[in-house]
Amino acid sequence: MLTYRGIPLWRDVRVLQAIGQLVSVVFVVSLLVFFVANLRSAADERGLSLGFDFLGQEAGFPIGESVIDYDPGDSFLHAFAVGIINTLKAAVLGVLLATVLGIVVGLARLSSNWLVRNLAGVYIQIIRNVPLLVQLFFWYFAVFQALPLVQQAIRLPGPVYLSNRGLFFVSPQATPSFDAWVAYLAAALAVAAALRFALRWREQRTGRPSHAVVGPWLAFAAIAAAGWLAADGSPVVRNVPVLGEFNFAGGGRITPEFGALLVGLVLYTGAFIAEIVRAGVQSVSRGQREAALAVGLSNAQTTRLVIFPQALRVIVPPLISQYLNLTKNSSLAVAIAYPELFTVGRTMINQAGRALPIFLLIMAAYLAMSLTWAAVGNLYNRRVQMVER
Amino acid sequence: MATTPEVLPPSTSVGIVGWLRANLFSTALNAAFTVVTGVLSVLMLVAIFRWVVFSADWSPVTESLKLFLVGQYPTEELWRVGAVVVGAAALMGVSWAVWGGVLRTFARIMAAGSLIVALSPLEPAGFDLAVRAWYLGGAASIVLGFALARAAALDPKWVMRAWVLGFFLGMALIWGFEETSLGESLRGFFGAGAALTVVLGVAGWVGRFPAGVVLRWLAWGWGALFLVTIVMFWGLGQTDIAPRVGTSRWGGLLLTFVLALVGIAASFPIGVLLALGRRSRLPVLKGFSITFIELVRGVPLVTLLFMTVIIVPLFLPRGTSFDLVLRALFAITLFSSAYMAENIRGGLAAVPLGQIEGAKALGLGGFQTMLFIVLPQALRAVIPAIVGQFISLFKDTTLVVIVGLLDVLGIGKALFLGNVRWFGAQAEVYLFIAAVFWVFTFAMAYASRKLEDTLGVGTR
Hints:
The complex is a heterodimer. By secondary structure, chain A is an alpha+beta fold. Chain A has a domain at 76-131 and 262-387: Orthogonal Bundle (MetI-like fold), CATH 1.10.3720.10. Chain A is 66% helix and 7% strand. Chain A has a 4-stranded antiparallel β-sheet with strand order 1-2-3-8. A two-stranded antiparallel ribbon of chain A has the order 4-5. Chain A has a two-stranded antiparallel ribbon with strand order 6-7. By secondary structure, chain B is an all-alpha fold. Chain B folds into 3 domains: 75-174, no CATH class; 177-241; 250-460, MetI-like (MetI-like fold, Orthogonal Bundle), CATH 1.10.3720.10. Chain B contains 19 helices and no strands. Chain B has helices spanning 15-23, 28-55, 59-62, 65-70, 78-99, 102-119, 129-152, 156-175, 182-206, 211-238, 252-279, 283-298, 301-315, 324-350, 353-361, 366-381, 383-396, 408-414, 426-455. In chain B, helix 11 (252-279) packs across helix 18 (408-414), helix 13 crosses helix 14 (324-350) and helix 15 packs antiparallel against helix 16. The longest helix of chain B has 30 residues, at 426-455. The relative contact order of chain B is 0.08. The model of chain B has no long low-confidence stretch (mean pLDDT 87). The chains are: A alpha+beta, B mainly alpha. Chains A and B meet through helix 1, helix 3, helix 4, helix 10 and helix 11 of A and helix 2, helix 12, helix 13, helix 17 and helix 18 of B.
């Protein structure tokens, strides 16, 4: 007589799954134990220290450029902060400029003008198919370093000076009366905001055109100008770079390293963003444009009020991942010696000899930036989903 | 009844004039755009042409072509690289005959290109008759492969196998053989065989494959191992036909290709496993996959390269060192497999549940459902993303410059180290490198588009 005894143990899915999990846990844990044991023995033998206590010690190496004050006497922690801020500087400026470039090229790609459309296409095809590092080398070694010596700097109107020491330009400089003017600016902002709110409210209540855009701008400009005139001497003056014996003094400066990195990152990421923008705009169905034109919106209004908000939903998620890529790609600066996070970290390892702790710090810093971008993306997606019907 | 004579459209809306009006001069603004951009681009084109032809100094490129192609691979051993390339060319010809499509385009371009190079009147440094003969051989073997395969009506399955086998043989030939003792070879042979048996046994058991199938795989596997370890590595190691060329001497396009091809071949299966792991119901497996994927995707490739080159040796027992190319490959593979996993996960999500239910209803096991029903559909759905990842990987191989390897870009950079003569020609060198990469990535993107068309993604 046949009796059913249930599934045999070696065919029971639950048992198999449990075994599978157990095996993988044992595998991963033993791998970790193996690594850590090796590391500890290596640390003992070579006298490597694994702590983070060295961060308070004197760094002792110079950094080419920094947003915050730094000198070799500062601590390793301070040097690392300089690296992070330099990365952020490249990332923020890069993201802004790449977005502008990407939108312009993406829209050019959709132009009804054959020449404009195809020129944009050629740019995208060339830039996207060449590795970023090759482009960075090109910009740094073949363009920025090939500029003339400081003494023969190219003078562009402004004045802007181009030389192998970088780009020097006129920068604004605050005078003692600047603080007073800032108060006026704050007031102007408050008034403009209030005016904007009031005019919008009136426009929506009465339906009469109330210049809710132009009005606040005019008010802001008027108050700011009044403050400028009332101040004791102009609050902001031009700081013009002057050629000294070896280099320019004064003015703003973009070093060749930063310039090459920024140009490379912006051109590269801009090409990817352009394709994202094009795909986004094309994803809005043709009927939307036709309907908008039929109800009497102008061409510009149609693009601004109908097409763009819908395209944005398709554009933003891949756009954020491009921002993330740009941030991570800024680490390629190590090849052209721009002192960002990775470059500074590498110098720190050479200087302090604490490879592992510093390496963990670098990883953590990049992970934090990635997570920030991911959080921004998630936030946007949640907002868009709420609007969706 | 009088017929109205046929009224032709006004001459301004058809033909060349019509096209010009519609596409270049539709409005005053558009006309202005056309004129300005047109003049600017013509001026630029003229300037670029004049620079390329008349004022650019291409001598650093033409005098270092060998470096750009194979790095410091010993000259007397170059026949091995040549043999691999000619072999690949023959397979390319065979594939042209068997599959046609985009492979036909590539095979024709390659044949024509090699022929032009072989017969070109230009004479860069070291480009002697022997080198020309190799190029001629490449072109000839494409044609020969095509003709033979056409005559023999080959089964595509065998061509696939020939490519896989050829890949391993080619890598082995380029790497070369070292004298090893018989004992060591046997140890390697039995060690690898035991591992293979365990893996195939477990896979066959979990996947409920018939014992006959598993045994056949085992026979093939042991046979291949015997051929590789005993015949090739031990046998050829005794001779000096193809002595070992250490990877430190590999460079140029050869190194770029090895990094890209091995990286692609390794990261694809790992990516599939990670994607499956991430969708698994087993929390440990899932947690591990998610952690790995997100960690790797959150950091730049440079840090991973740095990790495998500097940090990983700290974790290994003292004295274990493996070579720099392998360590760089390890980083590239890790990095790429995480991205690959995310692409494939997208494809897995696109396979309708009904497919899995249907497979179950037909009596397929979980493993078989995955292998024969889900994965083929999932992968087909994400071909563009996967090829995009391959292209990224190919471009990312340039990052090995940062850890000191001499790939195409590394060679270009090294040309200027301590060589003042060429210092003014940096633009030429980097533009040449850019052009090299451009050709390959453009070809890959083109192949991807054609492959999509052939497989009918989005139309079925």
